[in-house]
Amino acid sequence: MLEPVNVSLESLNLATLMPMLIAVAGGLIILTIDLIKENLDKSLYVMLTILIIIIDLGSVVGFHGNEKGFFDLMLIDGLSILTQIIILVGSMLFIPLALTSKRFHEYSYPEFFALFLFMLAGLQFMTSSDNLILIFIGLETSSLALYTLIALHNRANSFEASVKYFTMGALAAGFFAMGSAILYGLSGSLELGQIAEALQLRMGESGVLALTIGGAGFLLSAFAFKLSLFPFHTWAPDVYEGASAPLAGYMSIVPKLVAFVVSVRIFEMFIKLNVEWVQTTIIILAVITMTLANIMALVQKDVKRMLAYSSISHAGFVMAAVAIATTKANSAIFLYYGLFMFTNIGAFTMLWVSRHKDKVHHARFDHPYEKFAGMIHIMPMGAVVMALFMLSLAGVPPFSVFWGKVYIMSSAVDSGFIWLAIIMGINSAISAYYYLKLIVYMFLREPTRELNIATVYYNISKPLMTILGLAVFATVATIFYVDPLLEYITHMVKISGY
Q: Would the pTM count as exceeding 0.85?
């Protein structure tokens, strides 16, 4: 008979669970308040959500190195801390947009904010563990909440988007479970460090390499869904179109960054084991994704769908850094998404500014290019701000995303992938066309029809002006802060052993 094992609270290091527990407790508090008193003003829930996120951020910043906890399931290292800082800052940019208008009613539901915090907790669990079970639990927790957040937009294409995302997500979950099962069968463990050690010892055995490649293939397929990589990218434009503009911008940043960090943990394990197939496949997927998405973006008639394909292209760009698998490349992932976050959320927020309930410009799309024609005459400051975001996304120096692209291309050259850096440069040149196309419409075209400004461009509230101001400041001022930011990121990546 097995004797019980005494486990002390100190050895559990429950502090490693604190960031996630804060988010979960916050969601439960919001639901409890709604049960006690219904129909409270949404501004209460917005302020409460922001307060919870700030407390969560404070708990994350309190960690300084690699800490294990909760039966070694939790791992708070440099990668985890960096990721959580970026996703919490991105969340603080997103939530205040709920105060801008009652036009889209999902923000009036307390459940929206509770689900948002539950999604945040799931994302934090994903990035704060090297155990495949906990990563899977975090993945499904965040995904299920996000499916519902999309559907809460309560339009026909929102329901369609939610169902598509759910279906694709279920398939991705199946691939992840199958890949994890194969690795468990080979190693007898679900912890990445122990899996790597077991595979290292068994790699010479017959059939082990083939099974390892199979497990890696299933896991790569699962993350290709989440990162909208070719050929699993087809859901992204429809889901972005169906979601509200702010949520689409948020989806293009936060869940993807978390998936990239988990990809770094998993696939660099295979690369360090000299499973060359994994590195080669990731590079091929990255090149095809960025190229195909750019070509598709060229022919889009809707700005929101263009930005969706743009986000797919950026994901392919960053996936190349995962394949390069050096400290510089991994640092580039965080620099890229830290800068891309402000620019892309800002761009989608400008779609939120120019929203209207009826499709007055196009029978099919909410944000056709024609809608922005002559915007410089109708809303001059809005046109300048949107142009700034487009130039940054195109990688025009000295704006923010330029530095992320240069650093990834530099890491490719340093690792001997000169041809990959050239392809990245060519794709950046291609992407400039569709970004500049919107600028041409805004500055050089006449408005397509006479419309009262109030019917198209709604009053910009102070919260929205604040978010746009922060996004513009980050986009422009980055040139002065890239070096210290990069030093901090590189330090955090190095202490994680990546």
A: yes
